[in-house]
Design goal:
It contains 18 helices and 18 strands. It starts with 10 loop residues before the first helix and ends in an 18-residue tail after the last strand.
């Protein structure tokens, strides 16, 4: 992705980030209980820009991270262990058949102040707002790529509502979503679902106000979350979020959340630049560092990690992230399963992990699409593809391409991902030539273009990855569910980019999705995954394990396997227990 970086943090920016809707500085000094501190600006970088903050169309990690700070739903993930905890719903009941959920809403929760409301003051959230938001999610007239991952085939009447609205028919709402009273919402499922509450914790299931959508459409930026979106200069390549002064959340000590005055997200394209800025104190956290960079820091700056307290805190966390390439099954040569399997056997993944990634990956081996991070889901039982050059050559010969003869030049499309994706692609290009004798062209494009091209199958192969939306194998296996594939190549396919269809896979996936327990779900999901791996619509490469560096003054920031980051309870504190000061002026980069 070609980016022009203008990284200028000035004192005026920080003042702007900590003002109210009328751009007046917040005068009141907040004092927290329990040796916790209010104030400060949390600064973090992403190598790719966010794509959209319209919750029903979010498909990338950066957009999800930013949206999580702005929007909320009935429930939320726990930062520590990814369990479900209350949010706008303070409690809920489930009937004996495990298909009817009754949510009891917390009173006094308000939408963020915004011009879309009378006098600019956010109003209270009611059950009807959730019904409106969920029916927007189920509407066929909106960009709602996340419908298939949330309410489709799950909530009574959701599919019917989608089809009718898509056809332009007006009528009643979704039958399975009922407002009992202002603070009670009832949702009825078509069958039990062990992962339903997980789907409600994703940004797609957040609540939005009709007034806000009517005024802004898909440019809506108004939720109930701890931080408010502040429009900043586009040339500065940053997003500024400021504290929501009317936020409903409190910590266990009775402190109103959030602690931070603002969150500032910038977009340096490379990890090298990001790490240098972190060392200067311009970032509070760096996620996804190359292991050699971390090793070099520890070896050359040991005191920074061993002090009392240390200057930096290092975490190494296995993640629910799988890296893979997708085959385009709609045209030759990848309509041939033997070719796909040959490619899978031809890749020396250990060499990629050791020499290109420098150990920044994990797992007992590469087996299936699901990473080895789900409780009760043993991926070692999935028979995957080890490096086997002879088997790869034999399959290619059987497919009619001995030693690569008459095999067309194929194109792999990828986004740079801070150079890591390109480095991996060069190695794969070399390995495929060495083992199979095939020519591979690489095309590096901006992330938005790659996503759009994937949906319309415009390349032979795509570099891809899946980061868990919720901690269940269902979320990964859903990406290859055949029911989401359109009949025409002219229509977009998401998330099933390869346009893979197998009736046995779909049946096993559906049985797992509708099971009453996680144990029963996993049994069916494992069967589905083995069917899919045998068909090889994707070429799995590795599972992520990321290093994370934080400045030692960052408190209450917990690492988890899903990259879920809720900053509402994060606070900044220096070694003496005082709030870490925000820099008045950052170093200028041109």
């Amino acid at each position: 992705m070609k980016k022009t970086i203008l990284f200028i943090f000035t004192f005026s920016l920080f003042i702007a980030a900590c003002t109210n809707n009328n751009d007046q500085p917040v005068a009141e000094k907040r004092v927290a209980k329990g040796n916790r501190t209010y104030g400060g600006n949390f600064r973090v970088n992403e190598t790719d820009n966010y794509q959209t903050l319209y919750i029903h169309n979010i498909k990338d990690v950066v957009s999800s991270f930013i949206a999580t700070q702005i929007y909320e739903g009935l429930v939320r993930f726990n930062n520590k262990d990814l369990s479900i905890r209350p949010c706008i719903a303070e409690k809920w009941d489930v009937d004996s058949g495990k298909t009817q959920y009754t949510f009891h809403l917390k009173k006094g929760v308000k939408f963020q102040d915004n011009d879309c409301f009378p006098e600019g003051k956010g109003r209270e959230v009611k059950a009807a707002d959730f019904k409106y938001s969920f029916e927007m999610l189920c509407s066929g007239n909106a960009d709602n790529d996340n419908f298939a991952a949330t309410f489709k085939d799950r909530v009574v009447g959701a599919d019917k509502f989608f089809e009718e609205s898509k056809a332009g028919k007006s009528g009643g709402g979704v039958d399975g979503i009922k407002v009992v009273d202002d603070y009670t919402l009832q949702i009825t499922l078509t069958s039990p679902s062990a992962s339903f509450l997980y789907t409600l914790a994703t940004p797609a299931a957040s609540v939005i106000a009709k007034e806000a959508f009517d005024k802004y459409g898909k440019d809506i930026r108004t939720g109930t979350g701890p931080f408010v979106f502040v429009e900043s200069e586009k040339a500065s390549k940053k997003v500024v979020l400021r504290r929501n002064e009317n936020y409903h959340g409190f910590d266990s000590l009775g402190n109103q959340l959030p602690y931070l005055d603002s969150v500032i997200v910038t977009f340096f394209p490379t990890k090298k630049e990001e790490l240098e800025e972190f060392k200067k104190g311009n970032f509070d956290m760096v996620l996804g560092l190359p292991s050699e960079s971390v090793r070099e820091m520890i070896e050359t700056q040991p005191a920074d990690f061993q002090g009392a307290p240390p200057k930096y805190v290092l975490d190494r966390t296995p993640e629910m992230v799988t890296q893979y390439y997708e085959f385009n099954l709609t045209r030759k040569p990848f309509d041939n399963v033997k070719v796909r399997k040959a490619f899978c056997y031809a890749i020396n993944r250990n060499k990629i992990i050791d020499e290109v990634l420098r150990g920044e990956a994990y797992g007992p081996g590469v087996n299936g699409l699901c990473p080895p991070a789900f409780k009760g889901y043993d991926i070692t039982k999935i028979a995957g593809y080890d490096f086997d050059a002879e088997k790869a050559k034999k399959l290619m010969a059987e497919a009619g391409y001995p030693a690569g003869k008459n095999f067309p030049t194929i194109k792999i499309e990828l986004n740079s991902g801070g150079a890591k994706n390109s480095n991996v692609a060069f190695e794969i290009q070399k390995q495929l030539m060495d083992v199979l004798g095939v020519n591979v062209d690489l095309e590096v494009v901006p992330l938005p273009q790659r996503i759009e091209d994937q949906k319309f199958a415009k390349a032979d192969m795509f570099r891809s990855a899946w980061v868990a939306d919720y901690p269940s194998p269902e979320n990964f296996l859903w990406t290859l569910y055949g029911a989401s594939v359109p009949e025409s190549i002219d229509k977009p396919s998401f998330p099933n980019i390869p346009r893979y269809k197998n009736a046995d896979y779909d049946k096993a996936f559906e049985m797992g999705k509708n099971a009453k327990s996680a144990e029963e779900s996993n049994e069916h999901f494992m069967k589905a995954e083995q069917i899919m791996i045998n068909d090889a619509p994707i070429m799995v490469l590795w599972y992520d394990e990321n290093y994370r560096l934080t400045q030692s003054h960052v408190k209450n920031f917990f690492a988890n396997a899903m990259r879920f980051r809720d900053l509402s309870e994060v606070y900044l504190q220096d070694t003496k227990g005082a709030a870490a000061p925000a820099k008045a002026e950052e170093e200028k980069k041109h």
